[in-house]
Design a protein that fits this description.
Shape: elongated
Radius of gyration: 29 Å
Oligomer: single chain
Helix content: 25-40%
Distance between the termini: 69 Å
Structural class: alpha/beta
CATH architecture of the domain at 2-130: 3-Layer(aba) Sandwich
Order of helices and strands: EHEHEHEHEEHEHEEHEHEEEEEEEEEEE
Strand content: 25-35%
Largest sheet: 7 strands, mixed
Number of helices: 8
CATH class of the domain at 2-130: Alpha Beta
């Protein structure tokens, strides 16, 4: 199948192209602003499916809204109609189409141009009235507060906020792309997509300009503390991925504090808000580390390199237990509340151990009581 993407070098277009080029059942035809009318006509003549993403959203002259949105889409619709073929079209419109402003009216005009000229061919027109879209590769200092905040904050540059309480509706670029691809897949399968003429991208995130800025600033600040926010799901996951995409290569890495003594090294790597912290330590041959118990805190140890003996003593009964593990036979070793524990390097080389604790270390309430194994 030959898939035409107009505006393929724009923010949404770049992301869609990267997703689609992973497939071997599609041939992509990309059209940009630099392409001629003749090249657009040739592309449409070949296309089996069209993603119409090209448009204008921030021209220097407001009159260019109509030219870059309504008039361009009218031209595309007429060219498709002239082929007499049933070519499905997905168009990226905007929620501004419901508002009385030059941009919104030009987007509404683009929708009407498609509906009046192409819908009769029954190829299928799918209109996405998108709210603010955020994600990687969006142009900063242009028309996206998220992109601008990510770009500037990651570089230590100032940001400007006129009204922190201003509400914002957002969709994430990966969700947009997946919604687009779902329409394409439905047509390939020969089934009608659900949702009708006007399609929705889910989820839509509701926030404020001030809240977004604070979250992104928090991402920037956590590096200094070796902390991480709850970036595993939902809006924060998407926003964090977006923030990272704006880092300059020189900032891909950052340092942590390493402590050294005659026993070896210890460093805290990452602290989470509700899932504990990650650390690592080393021990020279014959060195024993630990020798304490916890009432509630628990830990997981993983020997990455070397050979270790774990010793345990039940603090009430005195019962003891030992086990050995090594980097060649990886095992996760749990520490159990009420059992004192230590770890000894019983190999000939340096011991390297990863450590997870279920809570961030609190010097005021360490829950770490010295007790010889």
């Amino acid at each position: 199948m030959k898939v035409l993407i107009t505006g393929s070098n724009g923010f949404v277009g770049k992301n869609l192209v990267v997703h689609l080029r992973q497939r071997n059942d599609l041939q992509l035809i990309c059209i940009e602003k630099s392409n001629s009318d003749g090249e657009l006509a040739d592309a449409i003549a070949q296309a089996d499916f069209i993603f119409h993403l090209a448009g204008v959203n921030r021209p220097t002259d407001p009159a260019d809204f109509a030219v870059g949105n309504r008039d361009l889409t009218t031209k595309l619709a007429e060219l498709v109609s002239a082929t007499g073929r049933k070519v499905p079209i997905v168009i990226s419109s905007s929620i501004q189409a419901e508002r009385d402003n030059p941009y919104g009216q030009s987007k509404l005009g683009a929708e009407e141009a498609l509906l009046s000229r192409v819908a009769s061919l029954h190829g299928g027109v799918h209109i996405f009235r998108l709210p603010n879209v955020f994600g990687k590769w969006c142009r900063p200092n242009y028309n996206s507060a998220v992109a601008t905040f990510c770009h500037n904050i990651s570089r230590g540059l100032p940001i400007s906020i006129h009204d922190p309480a201003s509400p914002v509706s957002l969709v994430y670029i990966d969700d947009v792309v997946q919604a687009f691809i779902a329409i394409l897949n439905a047509h390939i399968a020969g089934v009608m997509s659900t949702g009708g003429l006007y399609q929705q991208v889910e989820p839509v995130y509701q926030s404020t300009v001030g809240e977004i800025a604070n979250i992104i600033q928090g991402f920037h600040d956590t590096r200094k503390k070796c902390e991480i926010a709850k970036v595993g799901t939902g809006f924060i996951r998407a926003l964090y991925a977006t923030y990272l995409s704006y880092l300059e290569p020189a900032d891909f890495a950052y340092g942590i504090t390493k402590h050294e003594d005659p026993r070896g090294e210890f460093a805290e790597v990452l602290k989470t808000t509700d899932s504990g912290q990650f650390s690592y330590f080393t021990a020279h041959p014959g060195i024993t580390r630990g020798g304490h118990y916890h009432h509630s805190k628990n830990e997981k140890f993983l020997v990455v390199r070397g050979r270790a003996r774990f010793g345990f003593r039940q603090v009430l009964t005195g019962e003891t237990f030992q086990l050995e593990t090594s980097g060649t036979n990886p095992q996760v070793v749990d520490t159990v509340p009420g059992w004192s524990h230590d770890i000894t390097n019983v190999g000939d080389d340096e011991l390297i151990v990863m450590l997870w604790a279920n809570e961030v270390f609190d010097r005021q309430k360490p829950d770490t009581i010295t007790f010889k194994v």
